[in-house]
């Protein structure tokens, strides 16, 4: 498995969870459960992805700007998560914010897969693509 396949697997989990989240209603156990799952998935993915994908990419001229942009988006998603935590789950604003998060997450994943992966494909060697996947998967396993 290379780093792109490893990251894509996690992206699918996030797409699934965020789609489920915006289907939930009010102050319910289901909404709480899915929100906590998504929050955890976003966090472990961003942490491991920054360490085993973006740090090597920031070191290369070709990918530095894209890598910085993606890391900034990780912070924007963190902020939306914090805002959701500060909002009552049965407030009408909660779903509005959750939909904002959904758009941000989908945009971020699509941009990574369509733009960042393509450039990273040129910037990284085949060996790097494999060894980064190994390191990334090891770290995700530890945190999950
Ligand atoms: Fe990301
Ligand atoms: Fe990602």
Automatic annotation (TrEMBL):
Domain Hemerythrin-like: 3-120
Alphabetized Pfam families for the sequence: Hemerythrin
Keywords: Coiled coil
Alphabetized InterPro entries for the sequence: Hemerythrin-like
Keyword Cell membrane: no
Coiled-coil ranges per UniProt: 77-104
Protein name (record): Hemerythrin domain-containing protein
Gene source species: Salegentibacter maritimus
């Amino acid at each position: 498995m290379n780093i792109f396949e490893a990251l894509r697997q996690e992206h699918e989990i996030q797409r699934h969870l965020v789609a489920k989240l915006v289907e939930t209603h009010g102050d319910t156990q289901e909404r709480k459960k899915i929100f906590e799952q998504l929050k955890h998935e976003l966090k472990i993915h961003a942490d491991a992805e920054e360490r085993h994908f973006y740090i090597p990419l920031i070191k290369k001229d070709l990918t530095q700007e894209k890598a910085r942009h993606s890391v900034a988006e990780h912070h924007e998603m963190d902020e939306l998560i914090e805002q959701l935590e500060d909002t009552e789950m049965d407030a009408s604003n909660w779903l509005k914010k959750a939909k904002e998060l959904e758009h941000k997450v989908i945009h971020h994943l699509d941009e990574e897969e369509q733009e960042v992966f393509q450039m990273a494909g040129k910037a990284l060697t085949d060996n790097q693509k494999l060894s980064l996947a190994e390191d990334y998967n090891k770290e995700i396993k530890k945190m999950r």
